[in-house]
Design a protein that fits this description.
By secondary structure, this protein is an all-alpha fold. It contains 11 helices and no strands. The N and C termini lie far apart (about 70 Å).
Length: about 270
């Protein structure tokens, strides 16, 4: 088992390195660092299948490869469609604005491509560890698939509801607070987190998959506090009506919305 695990881990790390080098070269040619966001989802797909082929090719590993392919493929397609015709992502533009132009690519390699490649490799450890075992697939694995499905529903439905909201000219200048967005201010980020907790549960059923618990913890931390919801809300809070939305709606985990306050005397 140990030899198989080492093979899978090394193959997965090599996959992340090749993908990020290729993405960095494409980004340099296009002059757009944001292409890395498309690679992000597809990298997990690649690692899932590399781990499966380099490992025991068990049912568990196959299930994980399929689940992560559905998630990563949908995410990459969504980001690509959203980014078509758009310029550089404001996050990366702000990051590079203080760096001399001739040093920006090297800076992006260190701070974006290297970091995201290592992060994807670490977060995908449940897929890698599960690929080194051949234990039977049981009820804990099915619970993991159910949690993954809940995450996919929140992520996909949340993105679709927001897209429909933005297409309606009547909503310009207002805050999206309907559907899943009435229960959590970030249904897509919550969905991402649930997906990875589900994948972890599938892996954790077979020892030593439970030891990879830091992978979904790290993913959830980044989605909720580091580069996800908190970072986005630092800008969103400046928009009219958003602070009121924050006061009545859960930030991350879905909860029933609080009632809107009625002005006194009305």
């Amino acid at each position: 088992m140990l030899g198989t695990l080492v093979t899978v881990v090394v193959a997965s790390l090599a996959t992340a390195a090749v993908a990020m080098v290729a993405t960095a070269l494409v980004a340099r040619r296009l002059g757009k660092i944001a292409v890395v966001d498309i690679t992000w989802g597809l990298l997990f797909v690649a690692i899932g299948w590399v781990a499966y082929l380099a490992g025991t090719m068990s049912v568990r590993s196959l299930v994980l490869a399929v689940l992560v392919s559905v998630w990563g493929g949908r995410l990459a397609w969504h980001i690509r469609r959203r980014a078509l015709g758009a310029g550089e992502d404001p996050r990366y533009a702000k990051m590079l604005s203080a760096v001399p132009e001739e040093q920006r690519f090297g800076y992006a390699v260190r701070k974006v491509f290297l970091v995201q490649g290592l992060a994807a490799w670490f977060v995908s450890l449940p897929l890698q560890v599960a690929a080194s075992t051949d234990a039977a697939f049981g009820w804990v694995g099915f619970v993991g698939v159910l949690v993954w499905l809940v995450g996919m529903v929140f992520e996909g439905v949340g993105d679709a509801q927001l897209a429909a909201f933005k297409r309606d000219p009547a909503n310009k200048g207002t805050v999206m607070d309907r559907g899943l967005w009435a229960w959590t201010r970030h249904p897509n980020y919550f969905g991402d987190s649930a997906v990875w907790w589900g994948l972890f549960l599938v892996a954790a059923e077979a020892w030593p998959g439970v030891l990879t618990i830091l992978s979904p913890v790290v993913m959830t931390y980044f989605l909720a506090f580091a580069t996800g919801a908190k970072l986005l809300e630092s800008e969103m809070a400046k928009r009219p009506g958003y602070r009121e939305y924050m006061a009545r709606t859960s930030m991350f985990f879905p909860l029933p919305p609080k009632r809107r306050r009625t002005p006194a005397g009305s």
